[in-house]
Amino acid sequence: MTYVKDGASLERSKTDDPMVPDLYEVKSLLRELDDTFTLTVSLPGQMEQFRFSPGQFNMLYKFGVGEVPISISGDPGATGELVHTIRNVGPVTDAMSYLRPGDMIGVRGPYGSSWPVEAAVGKDVVIVAGGIGLAPLRPAILHCLNHRDQYGDLVLYYGARSPSEMLYEREIERWRRRGLHVEETVDHAEPSWTGHVGVVTHLIDRGDFHPDKTLAFVCGPEIMMRYAVQALTDSKVPDTQIYVSMERNMKCALGFCGRCQYGPVFICRDGPVFPYQKIAPYMKTREI
Amino acid sequence: MIKGLEHVLDVHPIFAGMDQETRHLIAGCGKNVVHEPGDYFIREGDEANVFYLIRHGRAALEVHVPGREPIVIATAGENEVLGWAWLTPPYRWHFDVRAVEQIRAVSIDAVCLRAKCKADPAVGFAFYKNFTPLIASRLDATRLQLIDVYGQPKAAPEPELESGPPAKPAPPKPADPQ
Ligand SMILES: Cc1cc2nc3c(=O)[nH]c(=O)nc-3n(C[C@H](O)[C@H](O)[C@H](O)COP(=O)(O)OP(=O)(O)OC[C@H]3O[C@@H](n4cnc5c(N)ncnc54)[C@H](O)[C@@H]3O)c2cc1C
Fold first, then answer.
1. Which of A22, A107, A166, B51 could anchor a disulfide with B83, C-beta 3.0 to 4.6 Å?
2. Are B13 and B134 in contact (CB under 8 A)?
């Protein structure tokens, strides 16, 4: 298998080699926070065929630097472009933060499992997000809002370090108007902040939802997910109704290389979205 | 008046499991209070002789830092209990507390309550039993805040693969021309 490293040598059309990315054009790069940006890309003429489910990810390739898994954070109901919200943490994501409209980027995907938005029809959906973890949940939120009448209560508990580190602030207001009940909390704040201050699990503890008819989707730093799941089960949400999105460093994204192995599963092939029940023993195991 | 307070006490989880007589005793130490937005109704270092059951509104617990804006380290809202410094000597507040929105609350006079707890150990036990989980959960929450869960984790050492992963290239310069 040849891994094409040079963007200039890439064909526009997809080859049979699943490791070869398609060449997408950058449409825009929007700074969300100091270290986080939203990248919109498109493949003219071919976007109509691109379908993804909320929670799936793409492998994004910055030519000459490297390839990283990034969740799709756009509206699954909209075609025409692909949206990713990316936190600048290292070489590849940093290089991506300098992309400009017209630049090219490699895209492979979509990969992985998704949030069970169909299974949630007729139920309440409680979404618990921490920090950048709101990005992989955004398509699920948009899907539920696009089909608002199919769901019971829709609740978002969103935690971040401080008010200036909260993603999608303006959009969250629009979500509120469309019928999403949002509670936001930060670890610490200046006096002008009128929301909650405290850990996100506290919002769950005092939450007003019907645990037996609730599906919970949780995404954020792993440590936050562990405590959030605990708070949800303490609130009597059965662990069969809790879903989490896991992250591990990845390479092939196709279930071949084993880089993202997590206990007996591969995050890229079996995840990233898992029913909590399936991975509960490994989340509690050290050294995995 | 006491009847209304008793009803609040009847349904509040902090009094769960207490008998009617105990709740009646406690209601005798309580009164309704209102704090307007911006009011500081607790000041760090003052005697902690009261605690609150918030019925409406939100309060911010603040640490005053000289030379900069105060830092809000926690908030308490509807149905929550505010204050447990009254439970243990030296009965002093550790934070300032400000009303973020108008607060309507039941305030319980802790001097009165401590006297009742001392006079009747069964009341004291019931109270400490219900307050201990609250203190424990606040401590857990504080620990989580200390961990800084949303921060970027330090890179764990990568396991060496047999074939060896490709070396990470150096970060590009801003003007990287693709
Ligand atoms: C399925 C999946 C979906 C993802 N979705 C998003 C997303 O929507 N937005 C986003 O910003 N990031 C997302 N990530 C994480 C993203 O892939 C990494 O941040 C990225 O690979 C870092 O690459 P880098 O070269 O910039 O930094 P590196 O030098 O590779 O890493 C920098 C730091 O990030 C940590 N890190 C690297 N990869 C991961 C990872 N996968 N999980 C946790 N920590 C990691 C490293 O330990 C190190 O501390 C996702 C990861 C996975 C597996």
1. B51
2. no
Helix (H) or strand (E) holding A181: strand A181-186
Residue A73's region, left for phi above 0, alpha for psi from -120 to 50, else beta, is alpha
Task: Give the closest of B70, B100, B141 to A202, CB-based.
Answer: B141
Q: Per-residue pLDDT tens for A183-209?
A: 999 999 999 999 999 999 989 987 888
Q: Which residues pair with B74 in a beta bridge?
A: B61
B27 within 8 A of B9, measured Cβ to Cβ: yes
Nearest CB among B72, B137, B178 relative to A189 is that of B72
Claim to verify: residue A276 and residue A143 sit in the same structural domain:
yes
Would the CB of A65 count as within 6 Å of ligand 1? no
pLDDT in tens, A88-101: 999 999 999 999 99
Answer yes or no: is the C-beta of A93 below 6 A from any ligand 1 atom. Answer: yes
List, as own/partner pairs, every contact residues A173-178 make where C-beta atoms lie below 8 angstroms and the sequence separation is at least 24, other chains included.
A175/A141, A175/A145, A178/A145, A178/A148
Ligand 1 in contact with B166 (CB < 6 A)?
no
Print the domain residue range for A180: 124-283
> Distances from the Cα of A220 to the Cαs of A16, A66, A137, A225, B40, in angstroms?
34, 24, 10, 6, 35
Q: Which residue's CA is the closest to the ligand 1 atom numbered 28? A: A90
The count of domains in chain A is 2
Q: Residue A151 sits in a domain of what CATH number?
A: 3.40.50.80
Cα within 13 Å of Cα(A20), Cβ side = 15
ipTM score of complex: 0.77
Closest CA relative to residue A74, chosen from A123, A109, A122? A109
Q: How many CB atoms lie within 10 A of CB B121?
A: 9
Q: What is the model's pTM?
A: 0.86
CATH code, B130? 2.60.120.10
